[in-house]
Amino acid sequence: MHTTLLLFLAHIAAAAAAYSARCSSNVVTYWGQNSWGGSHLDQRSNWEKSLASYCQDDTFDVINISFLTNFNLTGLPVLNHAFHCEDKFNKTNTLDCPGIGADVKTCQGRGKKIVLSLGGGNIYTYGLSTAADGQAFADTVWNMFLGGKHTYRPYGNAVLDGVDLDIESGAHDGYPAFINRLREHFKGASKQYIISAAPQCVYPDSNLNSTLSNAWIDNNYVQFYNNPCNLANIDNQWNFDYASWDRLAKANPNTNSKVYVGLPAGSGAAGNGYMSLDTAKSDLTRLHANFSSTFGGIMLWDASWYTNNADYVKGLSKWLKTTLPCNDGTHTTESASLAKSTPPATKTQSATKTSSTKTKTSSTKTKASSSKSKAKASSTKTKTSSSKTKTSSTKPSPTESESPKPTHTK
Ligand SMILES: *[C@@H]1O[C@H](CO)[C@@H](O)[C@H](O)[C@H]1NC(C)=O
Ligand SMILES: *[C@@H]1O[C@H](CO)[C@@H](O)[C@H](O)[C@H]1NC(C)=O
Ligand SMILES: *[C@@H]1O[C@H](CO)[C@@H](O)[C@H](O)[C@H]1NC(C)=O
Ligand SMILES: *[C@@H]1O[C@H](CO)[C@@H](O)[C@H](O)[C@H]1NC(C)=O
Ligand SMILES: CC(=O)N[C@H]1CO[C@H](CO)[C@@H](O)[C@@H]1O
């Protein structure tokens, strides 16, 4: 179907490593749950660093902040950011995180997109059962996190770049209306917002199938791990099924909807699916060759592994950016200059930020990835394709019930 879309004037030169919907080399990660720390409670110096510290080099283009854990229509939504922020607005359960707000602006100033992730697993409760619920909650999210106004804005006047749906439970019939209503708000806005979802590789997704098919989705971050459909099974046609995700993206009302290959960023980051750098490169090359029109890049779970498995994370990101071309045949590093003279791709917004920094992060403390797989494996309830509960448990955070609560640092 054809969609004439919000075409944003804001097509300024794309920074070397900034997000671009035209390219196949975007690298996305997720921040706020400290998955490495969940299995290394006594090694606090290597826990996940501040959000801004993952924005200091070109490794990541999009970072999603997780999670907005509890939401419904009777109360203010509740966030969880592990140990990063634990202060709440008076008389509410909603976090008040001005420090994260400042980091959001720092990251955006460096060309990164910072997206709010809704949902998650574990003990969280949320759900949108009707279209009316979806619309009302979209207004709340717009007002508290995006371009609107609200008494309680957890990140102050920082305006996030979109929402990511990591819906693993709860009523789900209200999500298409949620997305449609958000997009009405986006129409009047001067910036490019992203709507993404992070389904598991098991197709179709048990919670979001109809939303992913019928509502506008920019990026599908498919988790190719934790299940027999993980990328390591690329040659097993009974387990691995990328083609269905490719078809889903092509059928989305957004004619530029993309699939991202979600991979663990370290050997203990998921129950299975972590692979050597060489194998990952080779498999990604094969997928890109067959599915280039929907191939948006990779998603790495999660940011805490950048701190603890840096060679791998940076190596994969750098390789992707220098190897896989953008839709117009350029590479991300070349597109910076090209973007100045080339109009944005037909339907989507091109990357908007100008500043690109190449500063090295100082937080990198590389550790052998092989040393840390064990603890996690036991706490990981690896999902099989028939189960419905999703990967929540592969995203442990020290603030969850299973572990002592670390104190607030900031
Ligand atoms: C709705 O959300 C609020 C805040 O998270 C929570 O306190 C309340 O128990 C929830 N209500 C229901 C019915 O889930
Ligand atoms: C929150 O409550 C504390 C203690 O009652 C008070 O000192 C503080 O000023 C309040 N903050 C706001 C923003 O109302
Ligand atoms: C998934 O959604 C599509 C589009 O609405 C529909 O055709 C398909 O039957 C759904 N699959 C399942 C298993 O519900
Ligand atoms: C790519 O397409 C070729 C030719 O159809 C097929 O043989 C191969 O299995 C595909 N590879 C992947 C990873 O889908
Ligand atoms: C792209 C990306 O990192 N997406 C992640 C956002 O956060 C959810 C959890 O809320 C993850 O499941 C996604 O993988």
From TrEMBL:
<feature type="signal peptide">
    <location>
        <begin position="1"/>
        <end position="17"/>
    </location>
</feature>
<dbReference type="InterPro" id="IPR045321">
    <property type="entry name" value="Cts1-like"/>
</dbReference>
<dbReference type="InterPro" id="IPR001223">
    <property type="entry name" value="Glyco_hydro18_cat"/>
</dbReference>
<keyword id="KW-0119">Carbohydrate metabolism</keyword>
<dbReference type="InterPro" id="IPR017853">
    <property type="entry name" value="GH"/>
</dbReference>
<keyword id="KW-0326">Glycosidase</keyword>
<feature type="region of interest" description="Disordered">
    <location>
        <begin position="330"/>
        <end position="410"/>
    </location>
</feature>
<dbReference type="GO" id="GO:0006032">
    <property type="term" value="P:chitin catabolic process"/>
</dbReference>
<feature type="domain" description="GH18">
    <location>
        <begin position="25"/>
        <end position="323"/>
    </location>
</feature>
<keyword id="KW-0146">Chitin degradation</keyword>
<dbReference type="InterPro" id="IPR001579">
    <property type="entry name" value="Glyco_hydro_18_chit_AS"/>
</dbReference>
<dbReference type="InterPro" id="IPR050542">
    <property type="entry name" value="Glycosyl_Hydrlase18_Chitinase"/>
</dbReference>
<feature type="compositionally biased region" description="Polar residues">
    <location>
        <begin position="330"/>
        <end position="340"/>
    </location>
</feature>
<keyword id="KW-0732">Signal</keyword>
<feature type="compositionally biased region" description="Low complexity">
    <location>
        <begin position="341"/>
        <end position="410"/>
    </location>
</feature>
<dbReference type="GO" id="GO:0000272">
    <property type="term" value="P:polysaccharide catabolic process"/>
</dbReference>
<dbReference type="GO" id="GO:0005576">
    <property type="term" value="C:extracellular region"/>
</dbReference>
<keyword id="KW-0378">Hydrolase</keyword>
<dbReference type="GO" id="GO:0008843">
    <property type="term" value="F:endochitinase activity"/>
</dbReference>
<protein>
    <recommendedName>
        <fullName>chitinase</fullName>
        <ecNumber>3.2.1.14</ecNumber>
    </recommendedName>
</protein>
<keyword id="KW-0624">Polysaccharide degradation</keyword>
